[in-house]
Fold:
Amino acid sequence: MKSTLLRIVSIIMAISLIVCSFASCQIAIEEEPAGNGGVDIAGPDDDLFDDDITQDNSGNNSNGNNSGNNGNSTNNGGNSTNNGGNSSNGGNSTNNGGNSGSNSNNNNGTGSNISIPQIDWAGTANDADQAMKDFYAHFDTPEERIEILRMAGYEYDAEQQIFYTHLNPWQRYFGFHDIYDRAAPITNMWYLTLKIDFTYGAYDWRLQWWKGQYGVLEGAELGVYTKDAGSWGDFYDCAADENLLKMEFEYYQSAADYNNKNPLFIRYEQEHWWLTGFKFGVTQPQKCVVKAVLYARDDVMADGIEEGLKNVTDDKGNWNGFTAYRPGSNQTNFYVRNGNVFEIVWKTAGYVNYSYMMDGNEDDAEIPTE
Structure:
């Protein structure tokens, strides 16, 4: 097992490469070959999730017993295709100024302000706009510059105008530890994260998800990690090839965009351990919405994932998880289980990676705005 120091260095290197590549290196990228033909994300009836999800009035606790339908096991075989798809969401990549002028009092109703530095969101929006212009201005530069981004573990989908990770980036060799999240704000990465923990077979599994602001980019990540069952510690290995899970997700800038079925981009169905998407823009971690589809291998894994969804907590151990979808309930974080396939809508579950900087006022925390 590699040393903790090496893991810390690896994440700092990764973050530095990302920031350099996206913000100032002005890298040129060729368009990726088309993916799976732009097939729509799988899901239940079109009108199932039409309710407003900006407020959760469910009054749930972590001991709910919505067991879901076990059904037959879904085989999640197939090839891992690093697609970007032929999404109809290409459009313009100038999704960068929308939230920069919003006002937020950033407290939990007690009058205590969050103690983290003020962030110049108008400046971040301008930086994102300039980075986008630089990117396209240098689109036809020599092939060598493409390799800089690929060395950082990323590819580019020119149709959707998103950056994403391929199946075997160098980061896959260094696993994941909670300290990586704590270090991320140092490099201007502010996001909401959650952990879905369960035991299946010989491993303790962790599905960790992230969404929010990554320098001048906004986006989301779905990660799959394992360690030996019952082993001590918070370090997880990136899932091996035999432990990849089939998954996909849609990323929305806001609940309104979600309700209007207007995703900023889509990561199409594939087997992966780190399904990601990033685009030039500005967001708030608890305002953007991710709709994911996750395929369990069998009933046992599906039961473990469902319990893990129900028992998501914040970083202090307080319940902050998902509940089974109930029509008309205006849930904020919910899932639908169909046999061994989950559709999951995520807005506020988990905790922000900068909560340790906030004087204990984690509730409804958002990045400070001007």
